[in-house]
């Protein structure tokens, strides 16, 4: 890994995961905030179950490391990362529901609707979604309200109808859920369903750092390449991985009849596409010199991960 050893990268990733865990724990405490009336115990327990004690926290890590390129205070980047992680965790809760992927396991544990019930899972997801926008607008993130506005707008667009949520419905359509024979654009589905939140992790650092247009575009290009590499690696893991390492059943995509990068490109073609995307990601952030070493290592981590 250019400029960053595997052990140093792992330490940085683990440190951000630990810091994000601690921050989410505080944000999801039972203490009532100004303008809140109550924090119902069942709801809070469900939100904590699905957002604490698990995951690599890759999305917050991307926020922290992209922001570090510009010398942004770590505490501010962690808050934005926590907001992004709330969106990610909410999406997993809803994705696991019987009406969506109908999954029994997530991170090696029963999914939330299996642990509790569908209604609690839906509301816990709703709670995490709305909490994300509470967090990302907080004054501690940046003294300039316009920066906070840009962060909030970008998060809404990456998470919403033109991003993750839109990608979810296209993915379901690709399974034939709604009848008809609509053409399946796997790359478009990936860009929206999975890639949009990963991309946000990269452009959020540029927004926080008040980057130039050239710098913003570099991180945008990097985020798009990393997001696609992540999804192809995920598709490969669904075919080649084992359930114990994944923390969820392998072969789920095939069982649902999903069209993936692997079904379109084949295993070797998919692996070559990942290598091409790594080269693209490296090139995109090369304008930052040594400051990009951790981001370049992150792209390799995404491509080589086992779970």
Automatic annotation (TrEMBL):
Its cofactor is Mg(2+). The keyword Transferase applies. The keyword Metal-binding applies. Signal peptide: none annotated. CDD domains: Trans_IPPS_HT. Gene3D superfamilies: Farnesyl Diphosphate Synthase. It comes from the Bacteria. Keywords: Isoprene biosynthesis, Magnesium, Metal-binding, Transferase. Belongs to the FPP/GGPP synthase family. NCBIfam families: FPPsyn (NF045485). This is Polyprenyl synthetase family protein. It comes from Bradyrhizobium barranii.
